[in-house]
């Protein structure tokens, strides 16, 4: 099992009773994790009557209409569109604003930079919920209530702290000679940022962008408080409304859930590396 | 490259600062810092959010919050989440990480599957489990029927609703903590493990005296995330119970939403926010100072 030294296992040497215990443990956890997900997927393919008698198994009659009906409705696409607009705007503005600030903190030594950075990282200490009411009043007074930007700007503001920290560290780790050489040659900081730093920083931009996207895509509280019109709802709000309307028609609700988490799952499989790196990134900060 | 600046001062450091810093500082100040300060100010008023706050009532809102039975329950529930995170979720995540950090066929796939619940939206997760727990159509009900028993409506009883939510918390978040541990284990020097094994250490001794001590910093971090996360739990509660029945399953944030936001009691809700803020910040500073001081 372990031919090369880098894979010396922590706890295992070949097949033994322990190995079986381990496999059983993994199996139980696997069942615990996937059963609700698979039952949700399959439940959307059953009729309500069958769901009651056969919630675990494959459908006896495959009710494709549940899914087809939702996919054919304007409502579903409107929710995904709203979520996509909100998440994309949040990502673009966060990347732009955070990368500029991170560049300043990484390369421009100025009086008070340490203090300002500490000021921004305060944002890591408490959740948006603590100030949700004053935030609502602020967004209202700015005339942004019930608009995409009323959701986007607070989300950006709360994403900034972590984004700036991650990017600043990445920028600092880029070879310092690059900047020195560019400055000697008369390149300005702004051009260096634009033509050297940003192109070299694709990995961190992808990571920060992906986690910001996932957070915004899944967000509930801020849109719930800032939006009134159904036509602007992102999908987490929309699905709660849907569930309210179809309260006990679980087959439809399950189909709707499946179709709304599908984009997340697809994104996860295509951007696994960035998602795992980004979401566990807090753990490596020095 | 045409990117060379022709400006006489060359680098344009001041211009860059003036352009690059204000957007972040302004957004952060406007939507994060000011609202916190305003929450402290508003919490002194009895105010419905319209016009300007005039009805100053001093610390009465805080007295109302602390005197509210549902707030005591919510606070206790937040502590329960922390307890379950530390006593159930963390050991589970650690055990899985130790197994799955090894390379074997399927290890990477299992890691990904276990991490998957973490990236699902809380709202979707809550709805999925309100199906699982449903007394008529749910998975749990089906299991009860196999044994010919009457299925309980877990979410409809004030004694079982919150424990049911706790299980969902474990389901959703253990994979995140597992990934933290796996990342740490993969960065670990395995020569120590190998040397210990050659010297005759048992598997348990290797875990107890080498692997787990190496993980202490990560464990401290994982505990930090678990506690911070539990203090802000809200989205999961809404689709499952909305804090009910009889306000038995509120968290502090769902209490804030239910009694402050939906009723537009700005002063009262702000007082809850300020309390939550103080708890979070005190905890974060205390933890960083006393527990994570070596890092």
What's the quick description here?
The complex is a heterodimer of chains A (286) and B (295). With 286 residues, chain A is mostly helical.
Pair of chains with the largest interface and how many residues each contributes: A-B, 106 and 111 residues
* Name of the CATH first level of chain B: Mainly Alpha
Overall CATH architecture of chain B: Orthogonal Bundle
Number of separate domains of chain B? 1
β content of chain A, as a range?
A: under 5%
- The coarse overall form of chain A would be globular
Largest sheet of chain B: none
Reported by name, the CATH topology of chain B is MetI-like fold
Oligomer: heterodimer
Q: Quickly count the helices of chain B.
A: 12
Are there runs of chain B of 5+ residues with pLDDT below 50, and where? 1-8
Radius of gyration of chain A: 24 Å
* Residues in helix, % of chain B: 55-70%
Average pLDDT value of chain A? 89
Proportion of β residues of chain B? under 5%
Would you identify the CATH H-level superfamily of chain A?
Answer: MetI-like
**SSE succession of chain B:** HHHHHHHHHHHH
Total number of β-strand segments of chain B? Answer: 0
Structural class of chain A: mainly alpha
> CATH topology of chain A, what is it called?
MetI-like fold
CATH class of chain A: Mainly Alpha
């Amino acid at each position: 099992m372990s031919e090369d030294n880098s894979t010396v296992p922590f706890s295992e040497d070949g097949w033994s009773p322990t190995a079986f215990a381990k496999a059983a443990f993994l199996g139980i956890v696997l069942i615990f994790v996937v059963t609700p997900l698979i039952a949700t997927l399959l439940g959307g393919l059953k009729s309500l009557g069958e769901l009651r008698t056969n919630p675990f198994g494959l459908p006896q009659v495959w009710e494709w209409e549940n899914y087809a009906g939702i996919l054919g409705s304007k409502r579903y696409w409107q929710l995904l569109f709203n979520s996509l607009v909100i998440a994309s705007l949040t990502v673009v503005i966060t990347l732009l604003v955070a990368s500029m600030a991170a560049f300043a903190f990484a390369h421009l030594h100025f009086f008070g930079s340490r203090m300002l950075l500490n000021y921004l990282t305060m944002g890591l200490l408490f959740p948006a919920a603590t100030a949700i009411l004053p935030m609502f009043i602020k967004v209202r007074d700015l005339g942004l209530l019930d608009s995409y930007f009323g959701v986007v700007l607070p989300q950006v503001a709360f994403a900034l702290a972590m984004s700036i920290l991650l990017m600043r560290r990445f920028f600092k780790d880029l070879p310092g000679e690059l900047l020195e050489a560019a400055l000697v040659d008369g390149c300005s900081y702004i051009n260096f940022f634009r033509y050297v730093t940003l192109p070299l920083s694709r990995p961190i931009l992808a990571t920060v962008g992906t986690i910001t996207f996932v957070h915004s895509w899944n967000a509930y509280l801020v849109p719930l408080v800032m939006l009134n019109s159904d036509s602007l709802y992102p999908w987490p709000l929309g699905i709660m409304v849907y569930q309210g309307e179809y309260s006990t028609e679980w087959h439809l609700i399950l189909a709707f859930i499946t179709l709304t988490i599908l984009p997340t799952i697809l994104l996860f499989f295509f951007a696994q590396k960035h998602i795992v790196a980004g979401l566990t990134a807090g753990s490596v900060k020095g | 490259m045409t990117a060379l600046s022709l400006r006489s001062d060359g680098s344009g450091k001041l211009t860059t600062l003036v352009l690059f810093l204000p957007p972040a500082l302004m957004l952060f100040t406007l939507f994060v810092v000011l609202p916190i300060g305003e929450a402290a100010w508003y919490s002194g008023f009895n105010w419905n959010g319209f016009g300007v706050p005039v009805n100053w009532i001093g610390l009465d809102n805080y007295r109302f919050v602390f005197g509210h039975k549902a707030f005591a329950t919510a606070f206790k529930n937040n502590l329960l989440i922390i307890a379950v995170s530390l006593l159930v979720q963390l050991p589970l995540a650690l055990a899985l990480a130790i197994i799955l950090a090894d390379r074997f066929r399927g290890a990477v796939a299992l890691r990904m599957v276990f991490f998957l619940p973490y990236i699902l939206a809380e709202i979707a997760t809550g709805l999925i489990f309100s199906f699982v727990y449903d007394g008529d159509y749910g998975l749990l009900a089906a299991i009860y029927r196999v044994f010919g028993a009457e299925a309980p409506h877990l979410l409809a009883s004030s004694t079982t609703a919150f424990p049911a939510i706790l299980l969902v918390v474990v389901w959703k978040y253990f994979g995140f903590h597992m990934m933290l541990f796996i990342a740490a284990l993969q960065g670990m020097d395995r020569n120590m493990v190998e040397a210990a094994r050659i010297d005759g250490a048992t598997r348990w001794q290797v875990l107890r005296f080498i692997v787990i001590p190496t993980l202490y910093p990560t464990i401290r971090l994982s505990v930090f995330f678990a506690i911070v996360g539990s203090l802000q739990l809200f989205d999961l509660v809404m689709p499952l119970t909305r804090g009910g029945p009889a306000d038995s399953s509120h968290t502090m944030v769902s209490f804030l939403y239910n009694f402050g936001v939906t009723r537009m009691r700005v002063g009262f809700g702000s007082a809850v926010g300020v309390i939550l803020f103080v708890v979070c910040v005190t905890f974060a500073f205390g933890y960083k100072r006393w527990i994570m001081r070596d890092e």
